[in-house]
Write a structure and sequence with these properties.
With 380 residues, the protein is an alpha/beta fold. It is 34% helix and 27% strand. The protein contains 10 helices and 16 strands. The strands form 4 sheets. It has an 8-stranded mixed β-sheet, with helices on both faces. A 4-stranded antiparallel β-sheet has the order 10-12-8-13, with helices on one face. Helix 2 runs antiparallel to helix 4. The chain is elongated and about 80 Å long. It starts with a helix and ends with a helix. The relative contact order is 0.20. The structure holds zinc ion (2 copies). The site of one zinc ion (ZN) has 4 residues, from loops.
Length: 380
């Protein structure tokens, strides 16, 4: 068999060129028209069978009894880029600040190499270019569109700002967290700031609720488990001398098991409702689980690790994170693994975290991700 690393290195510059092009033209979730058009044009040229799911693409090549799927996400974020680089975002207020431009470019590179060697394929390979990973659950749309039909295993890569450049981080079991969201309106009775006795003040009720929420993780969750409850938005009032009618709270909760997710959800609702009641207020609370935790399958993790080591990649540890990833939806249906590729490079000043206006990736290692995707496809 050919050497995936060597093949990927040959098109290293091409991968960087694609990545820069996508980086300069970021598109938000479900708006990936340009990106997906470019991806589709290449895939057609290389002989893939294409199915469109909105701005998403399902592309097959080869035959055989088993199918391995490789996934990249294509969407950007509503962030104003602050990097001063030749490939800076040309779209005001939009930026590839999570590295999905790199994911698309790496998988496009893999697509090219896989097509060139398609006569050596033992299985069918399916490429999934999905929209709207950032809060849009684009993965669900792709699954509804048939992305997992006939698929036996799935792998996805994410560039990883916590890992040094070139390290492939593979982790068995829970990797990213399940994600929940809550929105609460604590309703009292407004009035004059100097006459609280004639009002029902929702501000102290909201303040107490915020503090009480902190005790879920501190006092109710097993200290050996991981969980987060964050209030990210508090809004109430319009003037210094007016007691407002209501206060709004919005936040997120994170967890690694579905049971804990359900527990956090119900406790958040109970605590806000009852704290409001204690202050003579009323609360309307909505809490939802937006996505499950990302759990890497044991066998598939082992397989990915052995393939990565086999082709000479530097495989290392990667920490769990309470960030979320909609790749979790694929892993609920099909065994697979979500893999991190280190892109942190202090010498180049590439040290900013994901979703930061100065986030960037060390482009010199992107071909390693391509090589791993190619190797997974052929060794499955
Ligand atoms: Zn992100
Ligand atoms: Zn991401």
């Amino acid at each position: 068999m050919f050497d995936p690393l060597k093949e990927a290195k040959k098109i290293k510059e091409q991968i960087i060129e694609w990545r820069r092009d996508f980086h300069m033209h970021p598109e938000l979730g479900f708006e990936e028209e340009r990106t997906s058009r470019i991806v589709e044009e290449h895939l057609r040229e290389w002989g893939y069978r294409i199915k469109r799911v909105g701005t998403g693409i399902i592309a097959d090549i080869g035959g055989g009894e088993r199918t391995i799927a490789l996934r990249a996400d294509m969407d950007a974020l509503p962030i104003q880029e602050e990097n001063d680089v030749p490939y800076k975002s040309k779209i005001p207020g939009k930026m590839h600040a999570c590295g999905h431009d790199a994911h698309t470019a790496m998988l496009l590179g893999a697509a090219k190499i896989i097509a060139e060697h398609s006569d050596e394929l033992k299985n069918r390979v399916r490429l999934i270019f999905q929209p709207a990973e950032e809060g849009g659950n684009g993965a669900l749309k792709m699954i509804e569109g048939g992305a997992l039909e006939g698929v036996n295993a799935i792998f996805g890569l994410h560039v990883w700002a916590e890992l040094d450049s070139g390290i492939v981080g593979i982790r068995e079991g829970p990797f990213l967290a399940g994600v929940g969201r809550f929105l609460a309106k604590i309703i009292g009775k407004g009035g004059h700031g100097a006459a609280p006795q004639y009002t029902i003040d929702p501000i102290p009720a909201a303040a107490d609720a915020i503090l009480a929420l902190q005790r879920i993780v501190a006092r109710e969750v097993d200290p050996l488990e991981s969980a987060v409850v964050t209030v990210g938005r508090v809004q109430g009032g319009t003037a210094f001398n007016v007691i407002p009618e209501f206060v709004e709270l919005e936040g997120t909760f994170r967890f690694f098991t579905n049971e804990l997710g359900e527990f956090l959800k119900s406790r958040i609702v109970e605590i806000i409702e009852n704290t409001a009641k204690a202050h003579r207020c009323r609360a309307e609370v909505e809490a939802d689980i937006l996505g499950p935790p990302t759990i890497n399958d044991r066998e598939m993790t082992k397989f990915a690790r052995s393939v990565a080591e086999d082709i000479g990649l530097n495989v290392g540890e990667v920490r769990k994170t309470l960030g979320g990833e909609d790749f979790a939806f694929y892993l609920q249906k099909v065994p697979g693994a979500f893999i991190a590729l280190g892109i942190r490079n202090e010498e180049k000043g590439i040290v900013y975290p994901h979703h930061h206006p100065k986030f960037d990736v060390d482009e010199d290692v992107l071909y390693l991700g391509t090589a791993l995707e190619v190797a997974l496809a052929f060794r499955f």
